[in-house]
């Protein structure tokens, strides 16, 4: 399309030393055509359930839904309204997508050296064939070019799903979700798109819209939920339905990984106070901590793998939350503690052969101090890959260097892209695979593993570990 | 002067791999003659206000005023009194500067591999032309050589200021400071030496000499300060005066970045208890937390950039404090928390287009967990460079690797030398520029940025970011 | 013995860049024949006291006593009983050592990229001459080969002690230990095997078997201990006896480094409650914190170097503890705080010329934040090498990079292997020496130290620092 050629280095993410780089290349070559295993993410199943679905405009594809992108622009003073982020208070937002794209292009330099910058380049260059770096001058031209492509059938979500060589993709779905899109996919035989059971919206009693969320759940199961006992039974029933729709895992998020079993009486009493909108201070935290243990119990019973994502303060920016709602790039990590907090849960189920718990955190100081030692001891515990802000080249290197010596490779859960930005999936897996191969090449060059071992470990990191951890075989 | 040549490697601080090193050299060459921007530091303005000022003896220049130096000697058992550190209890200290210098030279090996060691070599070699490594044997010879130079006009503070190519230098000054030296500099037209408003001594009610500090402030403004309201008005007035004298920023330090607005009644009550010397436990912390918010309000109003330096326990060593006072190398960092602590302040002003907050901490575990995400979201927040102990090669590399992917380069504030050791200023900027260029070279070699981008980013890191962040344009 | 040659890289642990690697080799060559100084570890003195002692089967040598090894197997679902770990509840465990070895060999890949994997290879290859990688197929063959060797006199503990070139080895011994093996070694003139006084079992009042431990101590000294005063006197007496048996150091471990002096009355009251089995909440923690200060006082008086190992939650896995007891790979680190916790102890003794305190922690976030600044200021404080999980290549690199710039080399205590796995001692020292030399080579190549300085620093890291820190000269 354009005259000057722009492309990504075929050695990107590799260390500079030639011998290590050569070996990293070899490892990467050996795994580069493996299918993508995507056991955890936030792709909208509606995109895939409808064969005629389309991504819309370039701005709808790359900017409006992706808080990784617009939070960086916001941090430099660009209003979210100017970026077309829908407001929930009815205040006006920019609707001219071409104009938003121009603003994005004008500020594209803000992504220099960031993972988003690398993914965007990979998407533009490798998925869409843009061969000139995006800038103020060519913004309109590239917008029009992308818009034309996005209307073609070969750039539909389903077509890209195939092109991306995705073997399995798990979405993340509320406990109340009727899974209509997954049902429809199932009926078509597309069973490699699977739901994941995420009950936070009804489990975390201090969620702003908890009562509405519970009402949705009641509506989904067609009955009122007036007691803790009924609540637990409903969750068990929903897990069963998710499992029938192909789910192999659940997911749970909270500010801290505090766990502690309450007596049934205590749990009933807190739940009653929640229904009466009369929670005492600490009630919500204690209930969440209790439900972690309950969810572990259910996992032992139904075999769903349990994921915990902990250590984030949601909606830190009150003004942004009020005007635009959740997931607007305003979630900020918190320091957390796993060793004491997980003790009750692990005392109950940590040695159980049918329990599988995958841990994710944003407090990297816990990698070597708590997470690796826990995974390196408890049969039930695996460590998830670097999460969110740490899904980056340096984040992965810190993870490999701080986790693997103590946990061992086989107590980790491979990679997941955790994204709602569908077209960034291959770019994200590629970064993981490249950084993993570079790490392995370093181990060989430093005499710590044999080259032959490196090939097997690369295969595990790119493919096997995720499949095994999430029971996707 | 001496026979054997001693010099610093022209490739110092660069990674060993030849291709990366070559690129780092190129980047460094492109920025090495840029003037120094020094927006935060502790140089004594009296040194510059008097054209005839002189640095004194080599010991007065390099040892006695620099706690980075003498704390290392103290840690290996050398008494501070033997190093000529003035006592405040009248106990005798060594006054023979040549003898102190000999002791320093005898123990110069203690600085192997430390930033102080690197700066000292740079100062001795590049500023003073010492071309033999300092040791026990040549200590006296080098002392005499330096002493001779220090009496020459070309080694006066003003002459070195020019030679160092310092474009602007900001000092740090108490709220009560009449800024007489800055006034005199201003009258001479030397407006590139600017004060910074630092009111800790009167804001932190548990400062040992709080009452005396307040009295000084009263004396400066020529009236009593008997209420919180009057206190706040006085601070506003002083900020106005600092601004008139060229200040563009304020600076605030506390053990934690706790922030929380009190009601006026609460603030008045605490201030009254402070005046009555009857503080309740927690009063001082709550007042400091409140004043952070107040200072942010004033920054919005008068446009002064706000700096926060948090996470240090001052005067950890009680015996040293009693005998020698503050700033004696006995301040030890504390773990801190930003995400929850800054929430009230950022809720109030974090989205305000006229608010600029630069954060500094010593708890590196907060780089990737809290600081980079905060800077990568809030329009008001920028991250200062690695502070104090982390103003070092490894400290900078950790900063680049842990901050930049999430915060992005343009949410950082460039470099400042933060030093009271005037002759170390070029050495410190050089280390930053070298480590920055080496980091950028790594990004290019790993395919993450284009080489052309690297030149622009190097310029930003060496010069532009600091000027913009501190409004020094 | 076997056909295919298997060996360790002579460049293992070195960075890939050729110039740095060459220099690392030179440094390593210059120190590789220095004797091993082992100032802290857990070797059983009985092994060395009896000239006829033997290591038993390969499984008894390498698996059953080493929780580093079996915890990794356990984490992947292999029951401890299947590994021959003795149960304390009488439940049956595997007794066929050849079968256990086979299971170990089947799962040897789990150690890929771990320090245990590297040590095991070094032991098998360099100590025993196994020149084929252990796997399922050759497990029996190698078992028989090793078993044969282990019965030979040249593979007795004493013979290996000499072969390993160990200059001095300190064991770790309970306060109640009569040191019969050390007495016997002393009588033979083998004074380079020394005890270390570790009173945790009687000092930490919440130790499960505290009462029995006190009874043992009573029995050793031949009198009842019914008051705190008597308890302290007994500990002083035991320290004296340990010192007579060659001890130069004490060792103390607790979950946190909390220190605080109690009044004698408070200490007496808590001790009385402990004897009456009526401890109040917090009593044990306060008593431990007090005893840290007491132990520092005694160190000043008797000159024994004081070690603190803090930040571990012992026996995290309750089921494993109940069935198998302590030290079963189920200890998980905790985040800790040194700056405030050590303040009382350092205020009392931190400036005392006869006090020497070596600190060890598992919370690496404290390296640059607290530990290095403390060691870089207080004359009494030295930092121990990376401990336990961090006794690894990456753990050491983090230590060098995060500690040395602030603490300086000479405020660190060299290396100790801290192991009960006697045959792993040379492998562990070799890793330290290699990583240290590689770090120094990097400093030279980056222009931070002179090459000549590197040789001296390598010698210090490999040998001198440990001898000086532990007064082993």
Automatic annotation (TrEMBL), chains A, B, C:
Gene Ontology molecular function: any one: glucuronate isomerase activity
Domain of life: Bacteria
Signal peptide extent: none
Record EC number: 5.3.1.12
Keywords: Isomerase
InterPro entries on file: Metal_Hydrolase, Uronate_isomerase
PANTHER family: URONATE ISOMERASE
Family affiliation: Belongs to the metallo-dependent hydrolases superfamily. Uronate isomerase family.
Designated name of the protein: Uronate isomerase
């Amino acid at each position: 399309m354009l005259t000057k050629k722009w492309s990504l280095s075929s050695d990107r993410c590799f260390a500079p030393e030639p011998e290590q780089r050569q070996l990293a290349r070899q490892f990467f070559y050996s795994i580069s055509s493996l299918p993508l295993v995507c056991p955890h993410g936030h792709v909208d199943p509606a995109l895939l359930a409808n064969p005629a679905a389309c991504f819309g405009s370039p701005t709808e594809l790359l900017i409006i839904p992706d808080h990784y992108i617009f939070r960086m622009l916001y941090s430099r003073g660009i209003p979210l309204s100017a970026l077309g982020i829908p407001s929930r208070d009815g205040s006006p937002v920019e609707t001219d997508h071409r104009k938003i794209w121009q603003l994005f292009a004008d500020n594209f330099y803000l992504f220099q050296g960031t993972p988003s910058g690398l993914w965007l380049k990979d998407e533009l260059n490798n998925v869409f064939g843009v061969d000139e770096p995006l800038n103020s001058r060519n913004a309109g031209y590239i917008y029009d070019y992308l818009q034309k492509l996005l209307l073609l059938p070969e750039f539909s979500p389903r077509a890209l799903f195939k092109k991306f060589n995705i073997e399995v993709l798990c979405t993340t779905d509320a406990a109340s979700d009727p899974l209509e899109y997954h049902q429809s996919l199932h009926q078509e035989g597309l069973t490699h798109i699977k739901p994941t059971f995420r009950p936070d919206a009804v489990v975390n009693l201090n969620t702003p819209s908890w009562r509405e969320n519970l009402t949705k759940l009641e509506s989904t199961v067609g009955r009122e939920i007036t007691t803790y006992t009924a609540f637990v039974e409903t969750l068990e029933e929903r897990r069963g339905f998710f499992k029938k729709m192909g789910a192999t895992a659940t997911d749970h998020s909270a500010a801290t990984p505090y766990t502690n079993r309450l007596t049934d009486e205590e749990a009933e009493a807190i739940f009653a106070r929640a229904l009466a909108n009369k929670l005492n201070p600490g009630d919500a935290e204690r209930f969440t901590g209790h439900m972690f243990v309950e969810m572990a119990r259910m996992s032992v019973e139904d075999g769903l793998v349990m994921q915990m994502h902990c250590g984030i303060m949601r909606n830190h920016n009150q003004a942004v939350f009020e005007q635009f709602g959740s997931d607007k790039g305003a979630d900020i990590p918190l320091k957390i503690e796993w060793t004491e907090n997980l003790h009750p849960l692990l005392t109950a189920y940590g040695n159980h052969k049918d329990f599988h718990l995958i841990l994710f955190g944003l407090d990297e100081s816990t990698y070597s101090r708590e997470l690796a030692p826990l995974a390196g001891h408890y049969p039930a515990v695996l460590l998830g890959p670097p999460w969110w802000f740490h899904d980056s080249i340096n984040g992965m290197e810190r993870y490999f260097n701080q986790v693997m010596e103590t946990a061992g490779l086989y107590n980790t859960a491979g990679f997941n892209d955790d994204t709602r930005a569908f077209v960034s999936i291959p770019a994200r897996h590629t970064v993981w695979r490249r950084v993993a191969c570079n790490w392995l090449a370093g181990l060989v060059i430093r005499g710590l593993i044999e080259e032959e071992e490196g090939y097997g470990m690369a295969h595990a990191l790119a493919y096997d570990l995720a499949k095994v951890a999430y029971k996707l075989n």
